[in-house]
């Protein structure tokens, strides 16, 4: 078991995913507090891993998450630089790290929601499309207002609605019963500066795919959205595509 300590941060133990998440949180707090201001170079990985009491693997996962959020950038041969301060004070990196790896959640969504969109495209009705567009408009407005809590709730409802349209009750129930985890995975990408409206554009493409009645197009739009949302949250996983 590994621990994360230093600069008045309490020790944390748990799974590898939890350690990586806590490591990212500590480094993020250092950036927020000005310990490492924008433009500064972080200590070497060896120094950071020793200081935090974590393995190089956990540290690299944490830095990958922070890079995905746009907070740091790795420059080959030079090190890792702070590129911007977190926009939202105290925002957690992934608060379900003790029970669910963020990568696992996105992979589940990729498989489950991609197929749900495929099924939904074959049976979707005009009223379903109207409701999805209404959701899209409301979510877009909340994103423009910087209200990511309500935006992520609407984001979750959009995906749940598609699962319900598909007619597969088991898939819809999985999403509904995992609502907190799923919604958190939909909230994180909004903190990637310069890409906040990407979700709106991707949801619009999903609606277009569903409306076309072409199963391949709907599934492609959904899986592309989930891959790109994962990347905005700092998660990259192979799909074989």
Features:
Arc Repressor Mutant, subunit A, disordered N terminus, two-stranded antiparallel sheet, 2 domains, mainly alpha, WH_DNA-bd_sf, 2 strands, 241 residues, Four Helix Bundle (Hemerythrin (Met), subunit A), elongated
Description of the structure:
The protein has helices at residues 16-33, 45-52, 56-68, 102-123, 126-144, 148-166, 169-177, 179-187, 198-212, 215-232; strands spanning 72-75, 79-82. Residues 1-12 and 88-92 have low confidence and may be disordered. The protein folds into two domains: 1-98, Winged helix-like DNA-binding domain superfamily/Winged helix DNA-binding domain (Arc Repressor Mutant, subunit A); 102-232, Up-down Bundle (Four Helix Bundle (Hemerythrin (Met), subunit A)). The chain is built from ten helices and two strands, in the order H-H-H-E-E-H-H-H-H-H-H-H. The longest helix is centred in the middle third of the chain and has 22 residues, at 102-123. With 241 residues, the protein is mostly helical. It is elongated, with a radius of gyration of 19 Å. Helix content is 62%, strand content 3%. A two-stranded antiparallel ribbon has the order 1-2.
């Amino acid at each position: 078991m590994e621990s994360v300590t230093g600069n008045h941060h309490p020790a944390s133990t748990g799974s590898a995913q939890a350690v990586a998440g806590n490591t990212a949180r500590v480094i993020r707090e250092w950036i927020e507090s000005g310990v490492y201001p924008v433009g500064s170079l972080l200590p070497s990985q060896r120094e950071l891993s020793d200081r935090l009491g974590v393995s190089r693997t956990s540290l690299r996962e944490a830095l990958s998450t922070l890079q995905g959020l746009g907070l740091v950038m790795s420059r080959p041969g030079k090190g890792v630089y702070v590129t911007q301060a977190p926009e939202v004070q105290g925002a957690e990196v992934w608060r379900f790290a003790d029970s669910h790896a963020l990568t696992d959640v996105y992979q589940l969504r990729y498989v489950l929601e991609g197929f749900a969109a495929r099924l939904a495209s074959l049976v979707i009705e005009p009223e379903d499309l109207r409701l999805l567009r209404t959701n899209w408009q409301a979510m877009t407005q909340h994103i423009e207002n910087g209200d990511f809590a309500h935006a992520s709730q609407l984001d979750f409802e959009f995906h749940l609605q598609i699962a319900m349209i598909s007619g597969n009750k088991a898939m819809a129930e999985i999403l509904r019963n995992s609502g907190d985890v799923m919604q958190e995975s939909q909230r994180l990408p909004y903190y990637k500066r310069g890409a906040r409206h990407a979700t709106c554009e991707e949801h619009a493409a999903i609606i277009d795919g569903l409306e076309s009645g072409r199963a391949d197009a709907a599934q492609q739009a959904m899986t592309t959205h989930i891959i790109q949302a994962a990347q905005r949250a700092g998660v990259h996983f192979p799909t074989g595509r």
